[in-house]
Amino acid sequence: METVRLVLLIIHILGFAALFGGLVVQAGTPERSVNSAMRDGAGTAFLAGLALVGVLEAGDDPVNHAKIGVKFAIGLVLLVLVMANMRKERIPPGLWVGLIALSVINIAVAVLWSPAHT
What we know:
Blueprint: H1 2-24, H2 36-58, H3 65-84, H4 93-112
Helix pairs in contact: 1-2, 1-4, 2-3, 3-4
Keywords: Membrane, Transmembrane, Transmembrane helix
Protein name: Integral membrane protein
């Protein structure tokens, strides 16, 4: 079970890396859009996160449902915003900054929330 957890964790992290990379690569461009890396990364991170919670629930260690709930909400907002703007030629600068902020916040919650209660 530990191997499955670690594989899902790696997939989850790679999903966020793709999302964040898809955002950051557009930093120097005047017009930004939702690209396939952002779409695939958001979807991968969200689904791998859900599967990871399932594996954690099946284990013996307690799961911090508050932390999972916060990460789920942020991840869902990210996924919805990315998918809703997928077909648009460009996205407003505020949305781009918001997507970066939500991505960083979600990573910060994962890393900084008390590891003794994960």
